[in-house]
Amino acid sequence: MSNPSPSPSAAPVVAFIGGGNMARSLIGGMIARGAEPSSVRVAEPVDALRESLQADFGVRCFATAEEAVEGASVWLLAVKPQVMRSVCNTLAPVAQATRPVAISVAAGITATQLAGWLGGDVPVVRAMPNTPALLGAGITGLYPNEHVDKDQRKQSGELIEAVGPVVWIDDEAQMDAVTAVSGSGPAYVFLLAEAMQAAGEKQGLPAETARKLATQTLLGASRMLTELGEPAAELRRKVTSPNGTTHAAIETFEKGGLRELVDRAVTAAADRGRELSAANGD
Ligand SMILES: NC(=O)C1=CN([C@@H]2O[C@H](COP(=O)(O)OP(=O)(O)OC[C@H]3O[C@@H](n4cnc5c(N)ncnc54)[C@H](O)[C@@H]3O)[C@@H](O)[C@H]2O)C=CC1
Ligand SMILES: O=C(O)[C@@H]1CCC=N1
Asked: Boundaries of each Pyrroline-5-carboxylate reductase catalytic N-terminal domain copy (predicted)?
């Protein structure tokens, strides 16, 4: 009997350079959504990380970037910004010979820096995903440089869409704002969860009860935000009875300067992105 399904070889071979937290989230999301493990190759120097990626997802892992990129038309650069330059320099001869599209998730490192470090004129897509990608619930900002053609743009978008929606950014300078809002954003929510749990415990709740109440509340509120299509301010208004309990809490947040504090935190993250770029040179 003939097999009508398309051959797995139709999917591009993707080489991840770096197999840490972000790569794990992306790989986990891709595999859970049907990517063929044999089409994913990972370079990761840490033995334990290679072993766990191989065991958890069935992907092929290598100790060096040069081995991982063999036969890959898409490279996903997922190392720390501080080591990106040396990793790209190592791969430059292969990039020039094989002309892959290089997708970088590194905060702050610009497309011009990446293309230059890879030997010049390389198609580069800057991507800023976030760790909920692991559950297919990520959001990713994407910026293509001038060497990315229509097919590569489509291919990059489809690859990342496996782990959540994408937004294309026209002005690369805005990638630092994307990083500060959604790239780092999950950590802000986790901090809020920690604070709500601790406050609940201080009010006398057992730790596990406080954790359940805080986390399920964040889940439910996030679902309302994403599924009901109502503005956050309107949803907040509906919880807040005049002179009720929520009113007392919200007034405390407002008087304590929560909005200004969030603004300062997001500005600090965006500034740090720009510093990372400057610190790593041309
Ligand atoms: N963690 C997050 O929420 C997000 C991270 N990012 C970006 O993702 C990148 C990676 O961040 P994380 O995954 O959090 O860091 P991580 O430290 O968990 O992962 C980086 C991995 O790269 C490996 N590595 C170091 N040198 C290497 C080399 N020469 N070849 C191959 N692998 C090498 C390290 O052993 C490490 O496992 C960063 O550039 C960061 O800006 C972007 C969006 C969100
Ligand atoms: O903290 C960082 O620098 C990375 C980029 C966005 C999330 N984590």
From this structure: 14-108
Centre of ligand 2 to C-alpha 23, Å, is 13
Rounded Cα gap, residues 94 and 85, in angstroms: 15
Question: Which of 127, 150, 178 marks a domain boundary?
Answer: 178
Q: What pLDDT does 33 receive?
A: 86
Convert the pLDDT of each residue in 193-246 to its tens digit: 999 999 999 999 999 999 999 999 999 999 999 999 999 999 999 999 999 999
147 neighbors 125 (Cβ within 8 angstroms): no
Q: Report the relative pairing of strands 140-144 and 124-128 from DSSP bridges.
A: antiparallel
Higher-pLDDT residue of 278, 119: 119
Residue 93: enclosing H or E segment and its boundaries? helix 81-98
Q: Residue 185: CB within 6 Å of ligand 2?
A: no
Range of the structural domain that residue 15 is part of: 9-178
The answer to whether 176 and 108 are in contact (CB under 8 A) is: yes
Q: Which atom of ligand 1 is nearest to the CA of 64?
A: 30
Whole-angstrom distance, CA of residue 141 vs CA of residue 154: 14
CATH number at residue 248: 1.10.3730.10
Q: Are residues 260 and 245 in the same domain?
A: yes
Residues 155 and 78 in one domain: yes
> ipTM score of the complex?
0.98
133 lines ligand 1 (CB under 6 A): no
Boundary (domain end) residue, out of 133, 163, 178: 178
Is residue 2's pLDDT more than 80?
no
CB neighbourhood size of 241 (10 A) = 9
For residue 281, is it within any domain? no
